[in-house]
């Protein structure tokens, strides 16, 4: 039961955001031909014939219009009673104690869970991972001791004869990291830099078959491919099929792993993989993630499912890197924490040093490695901060240069269990100039030729792809690719939060640009909704033999802006792309829903310019909040409301629509009147709108289905329940007026609040139902962090507070409390514009207020900070944790240990706060207190 509740609560919270309400806006469809044909002014006599023609055209249009309207009316009235639409279920009734109860209808109220489904969680694991990341965290002191040339590590020594029997195999892997939007927009990066990388790649890799390269951002590659001529395409195809160029990971982007929902992570992976397979017949084998700010355990799970056998990660806390280096655990099998066996295992390589640039990839000493970044040869715009520049490799210095580099290779290889070494060679947007290709490939080839020709050096060095490296590791260990090499550890857990030095925790980006993080989630939920409805519509169309008449709509999507760390102009570019995609997805949803609700699909007609339905909100610009659609009711004819449930279970949910009248009657599809709660729509903090009301009702929605409701402007219906509003104001000085027929009372002191209590800062703390002694405690807290006075400050990436969080918030909050029979609503204004019907958007309605350097962490609803979707959210087996800001300011050299909470804490909190529905012993459900879930 407990578990069932949790599942329902989580499920509801996650998917509630994806409920779309569609309105049949009949008025909208009535074209106004006169206006369209608007010409105005006086016509000379000679144009009378033209006018007559026009009048005829108008009449014709009117006639067509009438036909359209009658089609619409017919189709709406003859709704299908099979397929996607099902009856709305039994009606709620009022019990003797005053609460509304839904009768038990024989259907399961909660998703039933079989005991065997939970076996993985019972703790009986046949082969638990040796390395549990939570244990590793508690083991480490996070002391940041100076390690010498390898500042965050230690001195590495070796015996020169170690490779006498088995030479060191070195794979130098050239790469270029291209962000699809960061300082520049995606397009600007492409035109300024990325296209030149590909153009040079085709020429320079073709010059020598020993040259290799890897590429990971398929979004850029597709753009180049579509602009390239057939000869360049063929040359590129040859390089890929010949193994010189490897597509690594194969995602549309190198996805962020902390903020992204797994749906988006999968989606971008599918996008890239499908393109690669269709266009080139290529299936990526190795994962490459050098720039995500911390690594989620979801990624190895998804990569494994996507047929990838090995993966690489880079941005891991430097203390973890040091620890794993000292125990030679940088290569491990990454296992899901819930997995009972090795079925989810994937081989993972963790890069040991600070960065993926050249100074930090050849070995432990950046001062030496930088000398082997030949783009930095004297005369170049980039140089070595360690003050020793690279030297071109010539006969006179090759012996000394090769020895110096081999020493670094050998030291680095001491951190691994196999005598195979990976040496990435690249950086951000590298290899855009032909000169750099020559500098890197020619100088390295001279070094390789020298080393390989001298057996006493016991080394085999070459350019390689990432899979060349992994294959050599498997071969050296005598195992098949993807299987666990002997003696390599198994690890469970993840690598959040990330710190690259000192106490620079990269958790600031969890909350950067929460508005766009929210827009991205809204977009994803619409994408999922559109996919479902579109598939259902196409299936129905095929079944009915009318495939050609259903519009196949192309929808664009874009999936990288989540960290929120891009420049303003790039953010606007992302926002505009997302809004365009959202508008397109709504069109797909509208068309599909229109088709699906019609009983007689033969009369279906696709309205390109005048959509048949309208969605429940609109966004005028990429940076505006959605504006909800007002349904104007008519006493004579009904308006229709179509509600879509994108979840694969029946669900009971609260639906709210904006209407223009307080006289409302709501009927189910089969004509039964439903109780509707009418509440005020606030036009400002102190003003109820006289023109707009919120109408809310409970509806049972079929799984993946549509339900239809009729709305009438009707004289008082006994089923219309009016909210009684109690308003708590911070001071007496404000006046607020109620509006007939919605009563309003105002209070300023706590004593007047019989049902709920608030903390000092007007934050909700307890709820008690009328006639019910039980007090429900609610966690809802605003805390603020100051920013520290030192040079390094909190920003888009880092979270560097000046100390512990201070409870409280300096805003005068106005609290509105609605008392009504159907549900109960409580919200604060102006901070929270309202508490909408779904939990997630509550946490996100926060965006319009900029906080400058003060980082605000608000625990609303599920205990999630605003704008933060923690890594644990939606991850299979993922664990969540929060970070304790350092105590005391300015102690930059003393990184704090992250404080973690375990999964059961979070579930407890979820449960403690969610009381939307209570299952009674007779199987009926009681609506307790919506709005606090
Ligand atoms: Zn990047």
Automatic annotation (TrEMBL):
SUPFAM superfamilies: Families 57/38 glycoside transferase middle domain, Galactose mutarotase-like, Glycoside hydrolase/deacetylase. Residues 871-906 are annotated as: Disordered. Its cofactor is Zn(2+). Keywords: Glycosidase, Hydrolase, Membrane, Metal-binding, Transmembrane, Transmembrane helix, Zinc. GO terms for cellular component: Golgi membrane. Coiled coil: none annotated. One of its GO terms (biological process) is N-glycan processing. GO terms for molecular function: carbohydrate binding; mannosyl-oligosaccharide 1,3-1,6-alpha-mannosidase activity; metal ion binding. Belongs to the glycosyl hydrolase 38 family. This is mannosyl-oligosaccharide 1,3-1,6-alpha-mannosidase. It comes from Denticeps clupeoides.
């Amino acid at each position: 039961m407990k578990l069932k509740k949790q599942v329902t609560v989580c499920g509801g919270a996650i998917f509630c955001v994806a409920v779309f309400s569609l309105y049949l806006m009949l008025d909208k469809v009535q074209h106004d031909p006169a206006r369209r044909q608007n010409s105005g002014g006086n016509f000379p006599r000679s144009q009378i014939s033209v006018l007559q023609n026009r009048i005829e055209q108008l009449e014709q249009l009117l006639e067509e219009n009438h036909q359209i309207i009658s089609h619409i009316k017919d189709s709406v009235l003859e709704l299908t009673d099979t397929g996607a639409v099902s009856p709305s279920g039994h009606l709620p009734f009022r019990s003797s104690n005053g609460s509304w109860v839904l009768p038990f209808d024989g259907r399961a109220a909660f998703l039933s869970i079989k005991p065997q489904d939970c076996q993985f969680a019972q703790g009986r694991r046949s082969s638990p991972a040796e390395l549990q990341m939570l244990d590793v965290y508690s083991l480490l002191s996070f002391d940041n001791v100076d390690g010498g040339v390898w500042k965050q590590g230690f001195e590495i020594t070796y015996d020169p004869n170690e490779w006498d029997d088995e030479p060191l195999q070195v794979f130098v892997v050239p790469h270029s990291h291209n962000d699809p939007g960061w300082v520049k927009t995606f397009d600007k990066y492409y035109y300024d830099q990325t296209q030149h990388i590909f153009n040079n790649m085709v020429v320079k890799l073709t010059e020598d078959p020993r040259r290799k390269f890897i590429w990971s951002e398929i979004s850029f590659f597709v753009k180049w491919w579509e602009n390239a001529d057939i000869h360049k395409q063929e040359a590129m195809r040859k390089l890929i099929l010949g193994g010189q160029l490897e597509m690594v990971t194969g995602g549309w982007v190198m996805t962020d792993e902390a903020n992204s929902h797994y749906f988006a992570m999968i989606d971008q992976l599918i996008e890239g993989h499908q393109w690669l397979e269709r266009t080139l017949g290529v299936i990526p084998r190795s994962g490459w993630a050098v720039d995500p700010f911390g690594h989620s355990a979801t990624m190895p799970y998804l990569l494994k499912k996507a047929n990838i056998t090995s993966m690489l990660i880079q941005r891991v806390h430097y203390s973890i890197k040091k620890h794993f280096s000292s125990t030679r655990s940088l290569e491990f099998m990454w296992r899901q924490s819930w997995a009972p066996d090795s079925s989810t295992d994937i081989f993972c390589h963790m890069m040991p040093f600070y960065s993926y640039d050249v100074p930090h990839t050849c070995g432990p000493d950046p001062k030496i490695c930088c000398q082997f970044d030949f783009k930095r040869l004297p005369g170049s715009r980039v140089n070595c901060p360690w003050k020793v520049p690279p030297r071109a490799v010539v006969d006179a210095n090759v012996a000394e240069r090769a020895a110096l580099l081999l020493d670094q290779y050998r030291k680095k290889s001491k951190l691994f269990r196999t005598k195979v070494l990976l040496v990435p060679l690249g950086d951000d947007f590298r290899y855009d100039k032909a000169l750099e290709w020559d500098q890197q490939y020619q100088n390295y080839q001279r070094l390789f030729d020298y080393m390989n020709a001298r057996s006493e050096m016991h080394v085999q060095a070459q350019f390689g792809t990432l899979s060349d490296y992994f294959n050599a590791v498997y071969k050296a260990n005598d195992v098949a690719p993807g299987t666990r090499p002997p003696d390599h550890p198994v690890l469970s857990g993840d690598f959040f939060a990330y710190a690259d030095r000192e106490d620079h925790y990269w958790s600031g980006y969890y909350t950067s640009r929460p508005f766009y993080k929210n827009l991205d989630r809204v977009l994803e939920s619409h994408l999922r909704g559109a996919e479902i409805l579109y598939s259902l519509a196409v299936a129905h169309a095929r079944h009915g033999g009318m495939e050609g008449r259903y519009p196949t709509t192309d929808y664009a999507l874009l999936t990288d802006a989540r960290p929120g760390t891009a420049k303003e102009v790039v953010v606007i570019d992302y926002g505009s792309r997302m809004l365009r995609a959202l508008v397109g997805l709504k069109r797909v949803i509208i068309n599909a829903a229109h088709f699906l609700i019609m009983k007689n699909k033969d009369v279906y007609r696709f309205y390109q310019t005048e959509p048949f339905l309208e969605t429940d909100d609109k966004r005028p610009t990429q940076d505006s909040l959605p504006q909800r659609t007002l349904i104007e009711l008519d006493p004579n004819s009904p308006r229709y409301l179509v509600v879509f449930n994108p979840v694969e279970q029946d669900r009971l949910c609260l639906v709210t629509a904006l209407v223009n009248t307080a006289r409302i009657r709501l009927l189910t599809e089969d004509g039964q009147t439903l109780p509707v709660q009418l509440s005020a729509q606030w036009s400002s903090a102190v003003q109820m709108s006289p023109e707009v009301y919120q109408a809310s009702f409970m509806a049972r929605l079929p799984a993946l289905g549509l339900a239809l409701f009729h709305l009438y402007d009707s004289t008082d219906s006994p089923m219309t329940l009016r909210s009684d509003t109690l308003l708590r104001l911070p001071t007496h000085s404000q006046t607020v007026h109620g509006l007939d027929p919605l009563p309003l009372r105002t209070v300023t002191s706590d004593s007047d609040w019989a049902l709920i209590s608030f903390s000092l800062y007007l934050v909700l703390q307890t709820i008690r139902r009328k006639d019910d002694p039980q007090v429900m405690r609610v966690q809802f807290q605003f805390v603020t962090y100051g920013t520290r006075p030192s040079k390094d400050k909190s920003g888009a990436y880092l979270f560097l507070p000046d100390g512990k969080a201070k409870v409280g918030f300096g805003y005068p909050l106005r609290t509105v409390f609605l008392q009504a029979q159907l549900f109960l609503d409580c919200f604060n204004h102006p901070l929270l514009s309202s508490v909408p019907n779904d939990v997630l958007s509550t946490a996100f309605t926060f965006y319009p207020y900029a906080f400058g350097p003060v980082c605000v962490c608000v625990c609303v609803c599920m205990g999630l900070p605003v704008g933060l979707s923690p890594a644990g959210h939606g991850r299979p087996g993922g664990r969540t944790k929060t970070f304790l800001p350092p105590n005391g300011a300015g102690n930059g050299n003393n990184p704090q240990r992250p404080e973690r909470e375990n999964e059961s804490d979070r579930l407890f909190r979820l449960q403690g706060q969610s009381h939307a529905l209570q299952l009674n012993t007779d199987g009926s459900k009681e609506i307790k207190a919506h709005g606090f879930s």
